[in-house]
Specification:
The chain has helices at 14-25, 38-44, 63-73, 98-126, 147-166, 186-189, 196-199, 206-219, 228-237, 242-253; strands spanning 5-9, 29-34, 53-57, 80-83, 129-134, 172-178, 223-225. The protein is of the alpha/beta class and 257 residues long. The chain has one domain (5-253): Rossmann fold (3-Layer(aba) Sandwich). Strands 3-2-1-4-5-6-7 form a 7-stranded parallel β-sheet, with helices on both faces. Strand 1 (5-9), helix 1 (14-25) and strand 2 (29-34) form a beta-alpha-beta unit. Helix 1 crosses helix 8, helix 3 (63-73) packs parallel to helix 4 and helix 4 (98-126) packs parallel to helix 5 (147-166). Keywords: Oxidoreductase. Residues 4-184 form the Ketoreductase domain. Pfam families: adh_short. This is SDR family NAD(P)-dependent oxidoreductase.
C-alpha cells in the first residue's frame, strides 16, 4: 500500500478518469467515485499499477451518496481530493424538465460542496492536503442554452477562490481547473450533440486537460485555464459585456435545425 491517497469524483470517464491514471502513475492509492457502473471498469483499468484502487458507485448528487464515498475512505487521510463530478444540460431553460435541471444543481453544487466541506475539515485538522475543483470557463460566460450548467460552474469557480483564501494559513491548498469544451461524453449526456459546440471536432483532449490541472495542483496554483484557445476566451470574457457574451454563447450552444 502506498502512503498517499487521492480521492477523485467523476472518475468513470473523461477528465476524471485521466486524473485517476495520473495519480496512479504518481504512486497514489485511489478511491474513485461516480454514479455509474463504468467506475468499476475505470478502476480495473488501473490494476497492475502497484497501487490500491477502490471504486465507489454512488449518487454524488445526494448527501447519502457522498456519505457512502466518505464511508469508503474511512479514517484514511486524504492527500488529494479532485472534485471533478459534474453534470451538464443543454437546450432552452423553459423547455427543460425540472428534475433534470435540479440534478445538475444537486450534482455540481450541493453534492460537491458537501463533500468539499467534509474532506476539507479533516485536511485542516491535519494541517495539510490538496484540493482541485473542476470548474470551467463556462462559469465566466452567461450560458444561453446552458443556463443552469454555466450558473453552477460560476458558483464553483467563485467558491474555489473563496475557499482558497479561507484556507490560506492552514496548509491546505485549493486549485480550480477551468477547462473549455473537452472531448468527453459530456455533450452526449447533456443532450448537446445537435449544437455547434457539440459537433465541433476541435475539442481539447481530456488527457491534456488533466495533465494541465495536475501540474497546477502540484504547483499550488490558484487556477489554471486549460488550452490556448480557452485562455483567450477566458481573458476576453473579462472585457466583453455580459449581453454580448450571452449572444456569443447562443451561437455555440443553441440547437440546430
Amino acid at each position: 500500500m502506498a502512503n498517499k491517497l487521492a480521492v477523485i469524483t467523476g472518475a468513470s470517464t473523461g477528465i476524471g478518469r485521466e486524473f485517476a491514471g495520473i495519480a496512479a502513475r504518481e504512486g497514489y492509492d485511489l478511491v474513485l467515485a461516480a454514479d455509474e457502473a463504468e467506475i468499476d471498469v475505470a478502476a480495473d483499468s488501473l490494476s497492475g499499477r502497484n497501487v490500491a484502487v477502490e471504486a465507489v458507485n454512488a449518487d454524488l448528487a445526494t448527501f447519502e451518496g457522498n456519505d457512502r464515498l466518505l464511508a469508503a475512505i474511512g479514517d484514511r487521510p486524504v492527500d488529494i481530493l479532485i472534485a471533478n463530478a459534474g453534470r451538464g444540460l443543454g437546450h432552452a431553460f423553459v423547455e427543460q424538465d425540472p428534475a433534470s435541471w435540479r440534478r445538475v444543481i444537486d450534482t455540481n453544487v450541493t453534492g460537491t460542496t458537501y463533500l468539499l466541506q467534509k474532506i476539507a475539515q479533516k485536511m485542516v485538522a491535519r494541517g495539510e492536503g490538496r484540493i482541485l475543483i473542476t470548474g470551467s470557463i463556462a462559469g465566466l460566460i452567461p450560458g444561453s442554452y446552458q443556463a443552469v450548467y454555466n450558473g453552477t460552474k460560476a458558483y464553483l469557480d467563485s467558491f474555489a477562490y473563496a475557499l482558497r483564501e479561507e484556507l490560506a494559513d492552514t496548509g491546505v491548498q485549493v486549485t480550480v481547473l477551468m477547462p473549455g469544451p473537452t472531448d468527453t461524453p459530456f455533450f452526449r449526456r447533456a443532450g448537446m450533440l445537435d449544437t455547434p459546440v457539440g459537433k465541433d471536432d476541435s475539442k481539447e483532449n481530456p488527457a491534456k486537460t488533466a495533465e494541465t490541472g495536475w501540474e497546477a495542483l502540484m504547483q499550488g496554483s490558484a487556477h489554471v485555464v486549460s488550452g490556448a484557445k480557452n485562455k483567450v476566451q477566458a481573458a476576453m470574457s473579462h472585457l466583453t459585456p455580459d449581453s454580448m457574451l450571452a449572444k456569443q454563447h447562443t451561437k455555440m450552444a443553441k440547437p440546430e435545425g
